[in-house]
Amino acid sequence: MALTGVMAVALALATGASGDRLLLCRPNVTGDAALARGDAVLEAARKSGRFLDYGVVCVDAAESARAARRVGLEHAVSATAEGRVDGSRYVLVLSDAATEAERARQTLEVAPGADAVAPLRTSVDQLLATLPKKPGPDPAHVAAWSIVGAGAVAVIASVVVAGQARDAADRANSAPDLGTWAKARDEWQQKRTTSGVLLGVGAAAVAAGLTWRFAF
């Protein structure tokens, strides 16, 4: 339970503000609008959590790049959705706001009646994978070392509590009366248990963090 909490905190540190937002232009729909299913592009992009909806169509990658630059974003995605009798055809283009150049392109054919959102989500993820990585430490490494650090803190706390348990044991051994002895003995048992739990959780967290950092 405690180890799960440690890992959750570390993951939150690693993923709290990962990546910049991108501008998403509404898809340029051609052919049969019903068959084109342009809304599938918007739904797939929303699921990634990375896009800001521009709300209007961009005619090409250069226009989407200029729109992104105007609102202070570094990249934009424009799209076309073509509706045909034999299915839907999508073209997604990632452009750079500074140069207005096309950075990557994904083309997708979806059969009539088939789900378009899932394959479009894959195409969106592939576009995002082409973005340059921001300078700085690898988020996965940060998370791994955060777990190691949290584990080390738990181990240190275990040592401190173990010392308190020893003090309680000494007080019990030198107690002049039954009441003092019982109180000190109860404290010793509680501190001993707490120390053992902290040691186990801390050691497990250190091992898990080091394994994550160097084995994966």
Describe what you observe in this structure.
The chain is α/β, with parallel strands linked by helices. The chain folds into two domains: 20-128, Rossmann fold (3-Layer(aba) Sandwich); 139-215. It contains seven helices and six strands. The protein has helices at residues 2-15, 33-36, 39-48, 61-70, 117-128, 139-173, 178-215; strands spanning 22-26, 28-31, 51-57, 75-84, 87-96, 102-110. Strand 5 and strand 6 form a beta hairpin. The longest helix has 38 residues, at 178-215. The two termini are 23 Å apart. 29% of the residues are buried.
Name some characteristics of this structure.
216 residues; alpha/beta; Rossmann fold; six-stranded mixed beta sheet; 7 helices; 6 strands; 21% strand; disordered N terminus
